């Protein structure tokens, strides 16, 4: 099979017929064999009834309905496990992503050799309350991940099938699939300027809170990608530095007190000195951080994926 199109959706009954018809038209014009995986993330409208009707008319359409709303990442993760196409393309169900981009996205994977291609909605039809936070978020994501993409949150992306089988998407980490792919060794990541269309039906399902969650997830994915399998390298180093600073300050205070006693110099009681408590606190925090790294190492070494390495070729 040439292409698997993954469409996560939530309350999109109005847009589904037009979207599926558009995808089918593009596929037939380019002679692609394909499947469309419609992932109903617990919709409360008639989206599932629409999916049942459409799939009865077109055997290339396949549907999955969650019992409740789990989020976009869950929908993508389940769909990635099901996808059979050589190229997997994800797009939103609200018609803001154009299926006309599919042939070029397929070509960039199969001919140009990219592992992953991310869409870039260079010209957006969104209010300024979304565009400015989006630009700030993408700037932070580029700096933290080292991946030069302009639009991490664009739902229109294409992947080699081996990429989607090698990454696990959970929580709200769908924004950072390129980071996870790079972490798994798929670092040939491209970008394509794609058309952004204004919403035709319904209202957006995402609020401003997604930007707050996005930054928190960015911190999580950055930490895990760098120290997930070696937590002692961060906690142990910081803990050791904190402990040594506290010990040094304590030695200085204690040494001066002994010197003062031997030299008959009047010195303040150690218990009344603020430096003593700073040193003590620093040493305690240092020990706690070191122990956190040690516990993290024990957890990491006993995790099920501790030796989950991606083998590309064998002879």
CATH architecture group name of the largest domain = Alpha-Beta Complex
* Share in β-strands: 5-15%
Largest sheet: 7 strands, mixed
Kindly state the mean pLDDT as a whole number? 86
* Count of helical stretches: 10
Secondary-structure class:
alpha/beta
Low-confidence stretches: none
Number of domains: 2
CATH fold call of the largest domain: Spore Coat Polysaccharide Biosynthesis Protein SpsA, Chain A
Helicity, as a percent range: 40-55%
Task: Write down the Rg.
Answer: 27 Å
What oligomeric state is this? single chain
Distance between the ends: 27 Å
| Inertia-based shape | elongated
CATH first level of the largest domain: Alpha Beta
Query: Can you write the helix and strand succession as a string?
Result: EHEHEHEHEHEHHEHHH
List descriptors.
Spore Coat Polysaccharide Biosynthesis Protein SpsA, Chain A, 10 helices, alpha/beta, 315 residues, 7 strands, seven-stranded mixed beta sheet
Q: What's a concise summary of this model?
A:
The chain is of the alpha/beta class. 48% of the residues lie in helices and 12% in strands.
Descriptive overview:
- The protein has 315 residues and is α/β, with parallel strands linked by helices.
- It has two domains: 3-227, Spore Coat Polysaccharide Biosynthesis Protein SpsA, Chain A, CATH 3.90.550.10; 232-301.
- Helix content is 48%, strand content 12%.
- The protein has ten helices and seven strands.
- It has a seven-stranded mixed sheet, with helices on both faces.
- Helix 1 (16-29) links the parallel strand 1 (3-9) and strand 2.
């Amino acid at each position: 099979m040439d292409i698997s199109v993954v469409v996560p959706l939530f309350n999109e009954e109005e847009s589904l017929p037009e979207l599926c018809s558009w995808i089918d038209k593009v596929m037939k014009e380019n002679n692609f064999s394909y499947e469309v995986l419609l992932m109903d993330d617990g919709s409360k409208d008639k989206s599932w009834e629409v999916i049942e009707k459409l799939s009865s008319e077109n055997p290339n359409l396949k549907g999955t309905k969650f019992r409740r709303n789990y989020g976009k990442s869950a929908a993508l993760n389940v769909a990635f496990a099901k996808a059979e196409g050589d190229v997997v393309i994800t797009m939103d169900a609200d018609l803001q992503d154009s299926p006309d981009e599919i042939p070029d996205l397929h070509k960039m994977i199969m001919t140009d050799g990219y592992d992953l291609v991310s869409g870039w909605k260079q010209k957006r039809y969104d209010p300024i309350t979304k565009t400015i936070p989006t630009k700030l978020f993408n700037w932070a994501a580029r700096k933290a991940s080292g991946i030069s993409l302009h639009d991490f949150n664009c739902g229109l992306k294409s992947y080699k099938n081996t990429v989607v089988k090698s990454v696990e998407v959970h929580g709200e980490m769908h924004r950072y699939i390129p980071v996870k792919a790079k972490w798994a060794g798929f670092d040939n990541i491209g970008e394509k300027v794609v058309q952004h269309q204004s919403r035709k039906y319904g209202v957006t399902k995402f609020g401003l809170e997604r930007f707050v969650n996005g930054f928190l997830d960015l911190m999580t994915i950055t930490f895990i990608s760098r120290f997930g399998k070696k937590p002692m390298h961060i906690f142990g180093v910081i803990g050791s530095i904190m402990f040594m600073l506290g010990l040094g300050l304590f030695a200085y205070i204690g040494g001066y007190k002994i010197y003062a006693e031997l030299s008959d110099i009047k010195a303040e009681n150690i218990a009344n000195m603020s430096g003593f408590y700073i040193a003590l606190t620093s040493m305690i925090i240092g020990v706690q951080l070191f122990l956190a790294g040690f516990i993290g190492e024990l957890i990491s070494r006993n995790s099920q994926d501790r030796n989950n390495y991606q083998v590309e070729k064998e002879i």
